[in-house]
Design goal:
It is a single chain. This protein has helices spanning 88-101, 136-147, 153-163, 171-183, 197-204, 207-219, 221-225, 239-250, 272-279, 291-296, 337-347, 365-369, 403-420, 433-439, 444-460, 468-475, 481-489, 493-505, 520-523, 527-533, 541-548, and strands spanning 41-45, 51-55, 60-62, 65-74, 115-120, 125-131, 228-233, 304-308, 321-328, 349-351, 377-386, 391-399, 512-516. The chain starts with 40 loop residues before the first strand and ends with a helix. It is built from 21 helices and 13 strands. It folds into two domains: 48-276, 2-Layer Sandwich (Cytochrome Bc1 Complex, Chain A, domain 1), CATH 3.30.830; 300-548, Cytochrome Bc1 Complex, Chain A, domain 1 (2-Layer Sandwich), CATH 3.30.830.10. The protein has 549 residues and is α+β, with helices and mostly antiparallel strands. Strands 1, 2, 3, 4, 5, 6 and 7 form a seven-stranded mixed sheet that branches. The model is unreliable at 1-38, 259-271, 350-360, 429-439 and 540-549 (pLDDT under 50). 38% of the residues lie in helices and 15% in strands. The chain is globular and about 60 Å long.
Length: 549
C-alpha cells in the first residue's frame, strides 16, 4: 500500500501492514541496487515446525559486498492481546530493540552482520538481518540471542514517560492508535500499539505476566509452528545449509527458557496519551482469553466517531486539528486490493509546504482540490492499510483554523470521495488534468498516472532484492513483480468506480471519524450526517430498500 505517507509519515505497500517505526540501530547504507527477477523458492520445516523459505535470486551488492538477508516472522503483536495482557507486546518489542542498540558496530568483527532491526506491527514482529554469505551462522545466532533477550523493564518505563511529553509525543502514533481503536472497537486490530505510561508501569510490576506472554507467543512450540524464517540472496545461498544452521540456532524453541528480568522501577505521572485514552473509555479490564482463542479470533470492523478538543499543547498538531476519515478497506489477498491502492494514489495528497517535483502528488486530487485551495489546510493525504482479515482506507487532514473552516474542509473531502463512486466521463479526450477535475469525473489520464506511480513505488521498495518488502512477499506467498505489474496495468476507470463503491458504500459498520485539536467537536458536529447525505458508509435498511425500487 504505497499510500502517500498517512499518519505516521511513512510509506508502505498494500502488502505491508500498519507498522510502528522502531528506534532500531541501522548500520548499513541503503543505496543498494539490483534487478528484480523471479527465482526458485525452496521450503522445509525445522524439527520444531518453524517454516524455512529460501530464494536464490540475483546478487545484491553495495560497496562490492554480496548481500544476503534473513527475516524471522513471529506471529505476535497487539491484535493477539486480551484485556489482561494489553501492552505486553510493546514491552517485549522495546526490550529487544534495546538489545539491538547494544550490538557490536559494523566491521568490529568479521562475523558482525551488516544491519539488524526489529519491525513491529499489529500481527507480526519481524527480525530482519542483512549480512554477507559468510555471516549466515552468526546472523542466525544473533536472532536466537535476541529472542532470549532479558526484559529491560526499567528502560521501557523511562522511555514511555519521555514519549508522553506533549512537546515530544509522536502524534502520528497516537492518532494511528485512536483510529484503529474506534474502527475496531478497541479489540483485535483495535488494540493500542503504544500503551500509556501508566499501563507500561503496571505491566512492569507484573514481570511474571510479561515473561509468560513472551514465552507463549515468542518462544513456545505453538509459537514456533506459526513462525516463518526467510532467507534471500544470490550465489552461495543454499537451502540445506540455511536449514542446518537454523536448526542449530533455533532448534531450542519450544523448550523451557530461563526467566531473566530487570526489576528496577519508578513512579510516573499521567500525561497526554493517558488522558486521551481514558477519555475514550478504552482502559483495560481483566478479561482473559486462551492462546487458541486469540490466535484464531477474527477482527470485526465497527466504526464510529470520536472528536477530542484535547491535544492543543502538542507540537505535532502545529496549532491545528487533525482529522482522520476511514472506511473498512480490503483484506490482504483480496482481488481488488491493488485497485484500491491505485485509488489511494489517485487521491494522493501531501503536506502543503512539501517541495514539488515529479511524483510528489501535485497532480493528485487532494492537492488540486483541497490543499491548493486554502493555505490553512496544512496536510491532506490518502492512506490504505491491509491486514490478514480487514483493512482501512481513508484520508488524513491537518487544518489550522476555526471550526467553520474545519467543517467546510471536511465537506470538500467527503465530496472528493463521493466523486470516486460516479461513472467515468463518456469521452476520454485529451483534456488537461485540471479540466477533468473541474468536470468532477475520474479520467483515463488520471488513472494512468496513478497506476504508474503505484507500480513505481511498489518496485522501489523491492529494488535491492534483500529488503523487508521482498522477504515479506516470500513469507506470505505474495504475487510476483510481473503479476503485480499486470494487475495494476489492467485497472480501468470503471474498476475505480466499482471498487470505490464497494469500499465507500458497501462496507460493514459506520465510517470512522477521529479528530483531535482545537474546535474538533464543533467543526465535525455533523460529520456523520454529511457522510450519510453523500451516500457514503454502510447502507441503512432505508437506503437499500430505496435502491431496490
Amino acid at each position: 500500500m504505497q499510500h502517500v505517507g498517512f499518519i505516521r509519515g511513512r510509506t508502505s505497500t498494500c502488502f505491508l501492514r500498519r507498522t510502528r517505526p522502531s528506534k532500531h540501530l541501522t548500520r548499513f547504507s541503503s543505496s543498494t541496487s539490483t534487478s528484480i527477477t523471479s527465482s526458485s523458492i525452496q521450503t522445509s520445516l525445522l524439527s520444531n515446525k518453524i517454516r524455512i523459505l529460501t530464494s536464490s535470486g540475483p546478487s545484491s551488492r553495495n560497496g562490492g559486498l554480496n548481500l544476503h538477508a534473513l527475516a524471522l516472522f513471529v506471529r505476535a503483536g497487539p491484535r493477539f492481546e486480551d484485556d489482561s495482557t494489553e501492552g505486553v507486546s510493546y514491552l517485549v518489542e522495546r526490550s529487544i530493540n534495546h538489545a539491538i542498540s547494544l550490538l557490536p558496530p559494523l566491521g568490529s568483527t568479521p562475523s558482525t552482520p551488516l544491519r539488524t532491526l526489529l519491525l513491529p506491527n499489529l500481527e507480526y514482529q519481524t527480525i530482519h538481518v542483512l549480512h554477507t554469505p559468510d555471516q549466515l551462522a552468526s546472523s542466525l545466532q544473533q536472532i536466537s540471542s535476541l529472542l532470549q533477550t532479558p526484559l529491560q523493564l526499567s528502560k521501557v518505563v523511562a522511555e514511555a514517560e519521555d514519549q508522553d511529553d506533549p512537546t515530544n509525543l509522536a502524534g502520528e502514533y497516537l492518532m494511528d492508535d485512536l483510529l484503529h481503536a474506534v474502527a475496531y472497537g478497541g479489540k483485535g486490530l483495535g488494540r493500542r500499539s503504544v500503551p500509556t505510561p501508566e499501563r507500561v508501569q503496571e505491566l512492569s510490576e507484573d514481570e511474571q505476566l510479561v515473561e509468560r506472554w513472551k514465552s507463549e507467543w515468542w518462544l513456545s512450540g505453538k509459537a514456533a509452528e506459526r513462525m516463518i524464517l526467510v532467507g534471500v540472496g544470490g550465489g552461495r545461498l543454499e537451502h540445506e545449509h540455511l536449514a542446518t544452521e537454523a536448526e542449530k540456532a533455533l532448534g531450542w524453541m519450544g523448550k523451557p527458557v530461563e526467566s531473566r528480568v530487570d526489576e528496577t522501577r519508578k513512579e510516573r505521572n499521567k500525561g497526554l496519551l493517558s488522558r486521551l485514552v481514558a477519555s475514550l473509555g478504552l482502559s483495560s479490564s481483566k478479561g482473559e482469553q486462551s492462546y487458541e482463542e486469540l490466535a484464531s479470533a477474527q477482527t470485526e470492523y465497527v466504526g464510529g466517531k470520536v472528536c477530542l478538543d484535547e491535544g492543543g499543547e502538542a507540537d505535532w498538531l502545529e496549532g491545528g486539528t487533525q482529522v482522520v476519515l476511514a472506511f473498512e478497506g480490503l483484506r490482504e489477498g483480496d482481488g481488488d486490493v491493488m485497485t484500491l491502492e491505485v485509488i489511494a494514489t489517485l487521491l494522493g495528497g501531501r503536506k502543503s509546504y512539501q517541495p514539488g517535483g515529479p511524483g510528489t502528488g501535485m497532480q493528485s486530487r487532494l492537492f488540486l482540490n483541497i490543499l491548493s485551495k486554502d493555505s490553512s489546510v496544512l496536510s491532506a493525504k490518502a492512506f490504505n492499510f491491509s491486514y490478514s482479515d480487514s483493512g482501512l482506507f481513508g484520508i488524513s487532514l491537518l487544518v489550522a483554523g476555526p471550526p467553520s473552516l474545519l467543517a467546510s474542509t471536511f465537506s470538500r473531502v467527503v465530496d472528493q470521495l463521493r466523486l470516486l463512486t460516479l461513472p467515468p466521463p463518456p469521452s476520454q479526450g485529451r483534456r488537461s488534468t485540471r479540466e477533468v477535475v473541474a468536470g468532477r469525473r475520474i479520467s483515463l489520464e488520471e488513472v494512468e498516472r496513478a497506476k504508474n506511480r503505484t507500480l513505481v513505488s511498489w518496485l522501489m521498495e523491492r529494488e535491492n532484492g534483500v529488503g523487508v518488502g521482498c522477504l515479506d512477499d516470500l513469507a506470505f506467498s505474495r504475487p510476483s513483480p510481473t503479476d503485480i505489474a499486470s494487475t495494476i496495468a489492467s485497472v480501468t476507470p470503471l474498476d475505480i468506480q466499482r471498487v470505490a463503491r464497494r469500499v465507500l458504500q458497501g462496507g460493514k459498520g459506520e465510517p470512522t471519524v477521529v479528530a483531535m485539536g482545537p474546535g474538533a467537536e464543533a467543526g465535525l458536529e455533523d460529520a456523520m450526517g454529511l457522510l450519510e447525505r453523500a451516500g457514503l458508509g454502510r447502507k441503512t435498511d432505508d437506503r437499500e430498500e430505496g435502491a431496490g425500487r
